[in-house]
Design brief:
This protein is α/β, with parallel strands linked by helices. It has two domains: 4-137 and 181-232, Alpha-Beta Complex (Spore Coat Polysaccharide Biosynthesis Protein SpsA, Chain A), CATH 3.90.550.10; 141-178, no CATH class. 29% of the residues lie in helices and 20% in strands. A six-stranded mixed β-sheet has the order 4-1-5-9-6-10. The chain has a two-stranded antiparallel ribbon with strand order 2-3. It has a two-stranded antiparallel ribbon with strand order 7-8. β7 (149-152) and β8 form a beta hairpin. The longest helix is centred in the middle third of the chain and has 16 residues, at 82-97. The relative contact order is 0.17.
């Protein structure tokens, strides 16, 4: 596996937190952390940022990432999924350079805290399992799905009632292990992206992480927590 590329998607038009990918945490713009994580990996051989924004591109280059091409504006809208963004970059690299990735690592810039060994372990997990389509990092949820309800006809309806008649009454130690997608690390194959038209495919391997070590910035409160964590961690 010679060509393991990290592609960091960092558009400029975030709405919840304006210019989120350039917001500073502990003296660095947010996008810089994912770039540094990728560069520190023992397995990743190329680090690319996909952005439509000139300022983000300039900052990303200053931290060591490549910007082979700016992302088209139509792929930078908030409704656009990851798949066409990754197709765009991988197709461009193949058409202009003849570069073909063996493994694609998706690192979101909204995660300023990652241990480098997590990235390499997730990559190795996919390499060691040839039949798998992808690896996704997951963690146990703080609120177990057995204790989650919908409201139907003004009444609470447990979403897991097909698993158990009264799932919300189970003792904590009796709840089955469940996991949520924590957005920290994704590893996939070009065949999954182009052949299955998916970032995950059908056969996803879990890379299980401690939920206490997961940071994914979506809201202003997430941002303040990330600042506190990054500035005070030992």
């Amino acid at each position: 596996m010679k060509n393991i590329i990290a592609i960091i998607p960092a558009r400029g038009g975030s709405k919840g937190i304006k210019r989120k990918n350039l917001v500073e945490i502990n003296g660095k713009p947010l996008v810089a952390y994912s770039i540094e994580h990728a560069l520190a990996s023992k397995l990743i051989s190329r680090v690319v940022v996909s952005t439509e924004d000139e300022e983000i591109a300039q900052v990303s280059r200053s931290y060591g990432a490549e910007i082979p091409i700016l992302r088209p504006q139509e792929l930078a809208e908030d409704h656009v999924f990851d798949l066409p963004v990754y197709e765009h970059m991988l197709k461009y690299l193949e058409e202009t350079e003849g570069y073909k990735a063996d493994i694609v690592v998706h690192l979101r810039p909204t995660t300023p805290y990652r241990k480098i060994e997590w990235i390499d372990e997730a990559i190795e997990l996919l390499i060691d399992n040839e039949d798998a389509d992808s690896v996704r990092s997951v963690s146990e949820p703080s609120q177990h799905p057995y204790r989650v309800f919908e409201i139907k006809d003004k009444l609470l309806s447990p979403i897991m009632k097909e698993r158990h008649p009264h799932p919300y009454l189970l003792r904590r130690q009796d709840l089955p292990p469940m996991y949520f997608y924590n957005c920290v690390i994704d590893v996939t194959k070009p065949n999954t992206i182009f052949g299955k038209q998916s970032m995950t495919g059908d056969k996803m391997l879990p890379y299980i992480m401690d939920p206490d070590e997961v940071i994914d910035i979506d809201t202003k409160m997430d941002l303040e927590f990330a600042r506190f964590f990054m500035e005070n961690r030992i």
